[in-house]
Amino acid sequence: MNNSLTVLGSTAPLIAYSFSSRGFPDLVQRVQQLLPSINSAFLISLFDVWHLSELSDFLTTTDTRVRIWDSGGYETKFSDDVSSVISAVPSSSHWELQHYIEAARRIPWNGRDILVSFDNTPPLSVDQQLEIATEGYDHIEGEYLRDVLLHVPTDYDIAKLVSEIVPHLSRIDIIGFTEKEIAPTWKRGVHFIHTFKQEFARLNLNAPPIHLFGCLDPKSVTYFTLAGVSVFDGLSWLRYFFYNGTTLYRREFEFLGDFQGIRPTQDIDTAISLHNMNEMQQLHADLNFHLTLGDEGIFIDEKRILQSILAQGEQG
Amino acid sequence: MGGSGGSNYSYSPKTPRQIDALVERAGSETQERATSTAIERVVDEKLNEINDHDYEAIDRHRRQIENKLRETYDGVETVQYGGSHSRHTNVSGLSDVDILVPMGRASDAPASSKQAIERLAEVLRERYPSSKIETGRMAVTVHFSDGIEIQVLPAFRVGSDRFKIPNPNNTGWIETCPTAFAKKLTDANREHNNLVVPIIKVAKYLCDKHDVPVSSYHLENMVVESLSHYSGRLNQHEMLQHVINQAKSQVLHRIPDPCGQSSDVSGDVSPSERATAASRFRSLEQKIARANAAASSDEWKTLLD
């Protein structure tokens, strides 16, 4: 239906810096401080657009960046794993399909928007999730890409999943999964992505671009990109400290003698987040170079490790 | 109390081994700072060298050209510097001097830009009979005997800051706002401790020396774009590594011209030329990374000599 490539752009993945009120009670202030510095893409939840009227000041049609409007499920549902932060308790506010539709209608579409499907439901079958996604989109006029977020139980049969998605392909621009749900480890996660794409290839179909929700650290972005993911978002850039391709506890920067990224005019939170974006920007350039030219030099080790994991199959 | 603490957080080592480790780390940090300072000095020295322009002679030529054109044409306004010279991003030995000659209002522009350029060349040949004068697609180039080359670009005023100039194919005219990119550059420079202009100059020099095929204007746009959201350390050698890291990816794609002169600042570059430039940028990035990680400024000297 829509031309997703126009929005997603180059062969390199789209990296969207996420904002959420879950775990960040100072969300509006953070948006104010950090949004102007984002040059690629960002993600804001419709749940927050609905509940925080101050956010409307930052939503304009003249903003030419890619904007992902999230479904609100993260802000309202428990979905913890080992990387969760204690303070990130979901909101008890109501969040229904009608709220989602009305919040989306507030968005001044800029032609480069991505709208994530509504997902604040009890566990549903893939078919039911796809039906609810369509119902939401049918009530929201505008020029946006449909990013259908599917919650699948770990170890769900991938061939079955693909067969359930295929009849709906004409209504899907991007297919989304959460990193937490596709597999308990990143190794099994890359296997899931690889197998998912292979299954489409087996059927002589092009898989839609894949969005991996809640995945935004240098290592995961590298491996999942090489495995075939096209869109990433997550809150790690606000919570942790990226340093030379690794993700560290935030205060770790104080122990690194050669880190002087903090400027006197910035508070530490802002400075670390800007530093993290810088790290991701450099990784993005490396990935774009590698994927566009097929140059093996930069990610030679990661490619070798990935191939070894994929060769081991699901036990990887 | 618990360890979340504020800025008064401190750590007291308890064993001689821990004290030794701290002393060693402090020594290593001092060494790193000393190396960083030494590298900046090496880059500064190269900047002084590539900043060596004979501004007096250039301005004398500009005035002479202006006087001749005012004698010949009605409505010629003050001649303006254009290109890298106007933005102070010119590099000695690499950059031409561009001047923009406002010759009247847009409605005065002849239909054919080619004829306008040929007529301009005739007038300049009258003034400089012994100088080599060439007509290009967008400008006339005067090669002065002192080695200075000036490209004279005819322009017709559309608005306070907009002009019609010959299009790159010399088949007519296009509109341009020559100050649009200059403003972006000035803003970026101000935000980054006035380091963007020197970084552009050194990047141009490095690209020329290391055979990276990229035009001056294309490179300037990539540097400004990549530094517009830069949040790393404000020193030349690390910012250079960042801009060359980004350039290897940026050069693969089109970048809209902020001046509106063309749909892409690179002009007409083929995909294979983009791939070559990207690979050369990658190679240069690796050299800079090695030089930045070295224990002395010697590798930077080699890189720049």
Structure in a nutshell:
In chain A, 40% of the residues lie in helices and 14% in strands. Chain A has 316 residues and is of the alpha/beta class.
Secondary structure elements and pairings:
The complex is a heterodimer of chains A (316) and B (305).
Chain A: H1 4-8, E1 14-19, H2 27-34, E2 41-45, H3 46-51, E3 66-70, H4 73-76, H5 97-105, E4 113-116, H6 126-138, E5 144-149, H7 158-165, E6 174-178, H8 179-182, H9 186-202, E7 210-213, H10 218-227, E8 231-234, H11 236-239, E9 241-243, E10 246-248, H12 268-293, H13 300-312
Helix pairs in contact in A: 7-9, 9-10
Chain B: H1 16-50, H2 55-72, E1 80-82, H3 83-87, E2 97-105, H4 113-127, E3 132-135, E4 140-143, E5 149-157, E6 163-166, E7 173-176, H5 179-191, H6 196-209, H7 216-227, H8 236-250, H9 271-293, H10 298-304
Parallel strand pairs in B: 2-5
Antiparallel strand pairs in B: 1-2, 3-4, 4-5, 5-6, 6-7
Helix pairs in contact in B: 1-6, 1-10, 2-4, 5-7, 6-7, 6-8, 7-8, 8-9, 9-10
Structure write-up:
The complex is a heterodimer of chains A (316) and B (305). Chain A is an alpha/beta fold and 316 residues long. In chain A, 40% of the residues lie in helices and 14% in strands. Chain A has one domain: TIM Barrel (Alpha-Beta Barrel). An eight-stranded parallel β-barrel of chain A has the order 1-2-3-4-5-6-7-8. In chain A, strands 9-10 form a two-stranded antiparallel sheet. Chain B is of the alpha+beta class. In chain B, 51% of the residues lie in helices and 12% in strands. In chain B, α6 crosses α8 and α8 packs antiparallel against α9. Chain B starts with 15 loop residues before the first helix and ends with a helix. The interface between A and B is medium-sized, with 29 and 26 residues.
